[in-house]
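Dear support,

I submitted the protein below through the web form. The confirmation email said the job was done, but the results page showed an empty box. After a refresh the structure appeared. I'm attaching both so you can tell me whether what I see now is the final result or a partial one.
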Amino acid sequence: MKVLAIDTAGWSSSVALWEDGHELSFQENTQERSQAALLPLLVKDVLGEQKADLILVNLGPGSFTGIRIGLAFAKGFSMGCARPLKGINSFMATYSSLNTQENVLILREAHRQDVFGMLFQKGIPQPPQSLTRKDIEKILNSPSPPFLSGTGIHPFLDGLSFKEMSSPWRGAQALAYTFFKDQTIATDPAPFYVRDADVNLLNVIPECKAKLSPERV
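What the results page shows now:
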């Protein structure tokens, strides 16, 4: 089976093609504001003349815009190619690629005064949270602090003392690795948000809210 993995949930884009657990091709671009334009080019470069049997996409959490770009492209591409589409969230992909049974707190960058976090206790995921630096300091000062891993560590926690784990895989690579490690982790493609967006129609244009009925607010 060949799997095309797409990850735009962060502030960069990456695409990987894997076959039966082995990487065939990988491309990554770190330009934050060009995801929509560059993603089709990355997919074209990664696929070449090959065809994927399944499309895999990062569901988030991460950038609201990035998640939508990845899901929209992956859904359209899967329909056009008549190939199934599945998704894996960022937390599961990062933790699975660590290959550990230690307690690990996965942190995802949020570009805010907080990060998105999920604690894995003996491999069991706990509810996702939005964590400030002070919240994480409390966790690190507990009697048995977990290891930390993910894109939300540096520079967010620079200056603090903690044990860090790193994965050899990043972005779309981690998605593909996780899929071939345990295909039951993959789910139907629906976005995974830890919190509401900072900006929406109602807080950009307050007068819109007054015109809506209570049932629609």
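Response: this is the final, complete result; the empty box was a page-load delay. The first helix runs from residue 35 to 47.
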